Amino acid sequence: LAGRLGDRVSLGFVMETERQVESHLASHLDKLPAADHASRAIVAQMKDDEARHAKEADHAGAQNLPPPVKALMRAAAKVMTTVAQRV
Predict the structure, then answer these.
(1) 73 contacts 16 by C-beta, under 8 angstroms
(2) For residue 79, what pLDDT is reported?
(3) pLDDT tens digits for 19-77?
(4) Environment class of residue 58 by beta-carbon count within 10 Å: exposed (0-12), middle (13-18) or buried (19+)?
C-alpha cells in the first residue's frame, strides 16, 4: 500500500519503522545489566544502525507520517512483539 502512495510515503514508513525499532532497542538497553558489555555493545550498534537508516530515509525525501498512522504502526508492532514473545 505504501509503495502505491509514492516514494515519499514509502520512505516515510521506512523512517517511522526505523525510529520505532530504535526506541524498542533503547528499551532493551535499559533492561540489560550494566556489566553485560557484549550484549550492550551489540544492541547499541543495532540501535545506531536503525537511527542511521531513519536519517537516510529522511534525507532521501521521506514524508513525515501523520500521528494516527504512527500510532497504528506502534499498535501493530506491539501485537507482533507480544505474539513473538509467546510463541
Answers:
(1) yes
(2) 95
(3) 999 999 999 999 999 999 999 999 999 999 999 999 999 999 999 999 999 999 999 99
(4) middle
Nearest CA-CA partner of 26 in 55, 50, 56: 50
Tens digits of residue pLDDT in 1-22: 767 889 999 999 999 999 999 9
Task: List Cβ neighbours of 87 (8 Å cut-off, separation of 6 or more).
Answer: none
Burial 25-55 (b: 16+ CB within 10 A, else e): beeeeeeeeeeeeeeeeebeebbeebbebbe
Task: Please identify which residue in the block is written with the cell numbers 532493551.
Answer: 28
Q: What is the dihedral of CA 4, 81, 68, 44, to 10 degrees?
A: -90
Q: How many CB atoms lie within 10 A of CB 3?
A: 9
Residues in the chain: 87
